[in-house]
Amino acid sequence: MPDLKALVAGVRGGRTRVSLLMASGAEQPAFDLTFSRQLTELLRRGIPDAGRQASVSALRDKLRHTISGQDVVSTEHDGDHLSVQGLWLAHNPCHARGGRPGPGALGVEDLKAALETVGPAVAWPQPWSLTELDRLRHDIQTIKKSGTGIGPIALLHQAVHVVDGLRVCLATQSFLTSWAGNKLTTQRLRRALPALPADVYALVPDTTGTALLTDLLELLVLRAPRYGDSHTVFLTKFVAALGADAGLDLSASEVTAWADACGARIELNDAQDDLARGMAAQRLRLVISLHATVADDWPESLSLWLLDGGTVCERAEVACAPTQAAIEAKLGEAVRWGRSHARLRQAPLKHVDVAAPTALILRWRPEETDFGVRLGVNHDVVVRWSMRLDPPAHLWWINDHARAGLEKMNACTTGAPVDWLAEDDASQPQALAERLRDGRYTRAVAFAQRPAHLGQLMELLLAYVPVVLWPDPNHHLSPKEQSLLDLFWDHLPAHLAEAYRRRWQGGCAAPSDRLADLRSVWHDLEWLDFCSWFDSHDAVHRSAS
């Protein structure tokens, strides 16, 4: 720490300025260079609305939200009353030039590298506009033809590609701001992000608002892999998903005009076809419930519902012997029943929800049910807690509480909305119950290692949190494996079902394949909406008829 007395009484008579940022408090340990890594990432990404330069205080406030286990500390002394500018640590990449949108961190990084290849003869585009990018492209092409560039011709080609990509990003951002307007939200932007390779997912920033839109567009154009010769495949998927989620008309003239301007008309058509198929696959959902169980053992009947667009359209009750073999045989009949009704409705049946009591959740994998082919091969199977269908009187509040938890999870903009419980938490169920009653844990809850008494904990957790995740027995999730949830959260639980499929088929190369080591009980808004159908006493009785 600087000696303030020495600063005030020094040779400059106190006209000294010092700004200091520290990784931890006095006598407090710091871990794994977390401070250095997070600070580096923040300096590269920038801070929205922080001005042209990033101050120590602005960086401190951001770092305190991302670093846990150590206190980020700052101190400032300004004794120079003649100074015209505050102390700052770095230029802010998020600063907008002249009130216009500027490039994001990836755009700045790529364009700087491109201009270093070209040489000092070309200037940074200012203001950030399509006209300036067109000027820059022309200057680079001129230098290519004259052979006066610093780098080899291949790097000059790459420089032109970077400028073209940034032009697509800026044109797309202007289009989306005009077309989607007030329907653009941080959560909607994140939901629209298409499935990407894990190394590209790792670059998804934790920015929000306009800065996030800029960052995602640059990620999709400058970092996402190409399909053949096209660099707009992921971009058009993003725009189509964003428009569909906002309820906008994808056939509007401004959409096709944007696609034509980006040279992506066919890619847009392909994206709309993929979107239509995906929406058709989400239309129908088969629910198979084992809630008629006695003493947490196998039930003597299965309850079936087919949902079309979230509305119950068909239901049935299937009697069976109370054994696992009998239940799994009837599960195959239930799928056949659902598929027969799906054909009548001319829609595919992709999603199967299996609602089971706690004891069966912990020892049974319904997606592995074999009726000639495993259930999970052709269906996305999601495990639900059957107690939510018709809670007993003392648990009347659990579905409303889960809705509140999902709202908090949806508001999370940095990483996965998951609270990781340690071994100490698992070994003290009474203390955990108290924290749950106090509202300490309302988001998703996960274990890095399967607790010894998971059954006792699960009955407790399922009443309070909407999502619970835990690893297979004898498997411990490393910090790197835990970070997979940050990468793929917006695509769960579907990615879990896909990971199980790839594991059966021998896949283990992709990072997302490690998700197959996780089990989950998942309750989303769609499931809670279905559970609300049982709020009527008549509906409960009709389900058994």
Task: Summarize this entry quickly.
The protein is of the alpha/beta class.
Quickly list its features:
disordered C terminus, four-stranded mixed β-sheet, alpha/beta, five-stranded mixed β-sheet, 545 residues, 13 strands
Instruction: Give me the side-by-side strand order of the main sheet.
Output: 7-6-5-8-9
Percentage of residues in helical conformation: 40-55%
Structural class: alpha/beta
Oligomer: single chain
Taken from the alpha-carbon principal axes, the silhouette is: globular
> What share of the residues does DSSP label as strand, in percent?
5-15%
Query: Spans of 5+ residues with little confidence (pLDDT < 50)?
Result: 540-545
Instruction: Calculate the terminal CA-CA distance, rounded to whole Å.
Output: 75 Å
Mean pLDDT: 87
Q: Counting H and I runs of at least 4 residues, what is the number of helices?
A: 24
Total beta strand runs: 13
Largest pleated sheet? 5 strands, mixed
> How large is the radius of gyration?
28 Å
Molecular structure report:
- By secondary structure, the protein is of the alpha/beta class.
- It has helices spanning 4-8, 34-45, 56-66, 105-118, 130-146, 153-179, 186-192, 198-201, 209-223, 233-245, 253-261, 265-283, 324-344, 358-363, 375-378, 398-410, 423-427, 429-437, 454-464, 479-482, 484-488, 494-504, 525-532, 537-543, and strands spanning 17-22, 53-54, 73-78, 90-91, 284-289, 301-308, 311-319, 351-356, 380-385, 418-421, 444-447, 467-471, 518-522.
- It has a 5-stranded mixed beta sheet with strand order 7-6-5-8-9.
- A hairpin with a 2-residue loop joins strand 6 and strand 7.
- Helix 5 (130-146) runs antiparallel to helix 6 and helix 18 runs parallel beside helix 19 (454-464).
- Residues 540-545 have low confidence and may be disordered.
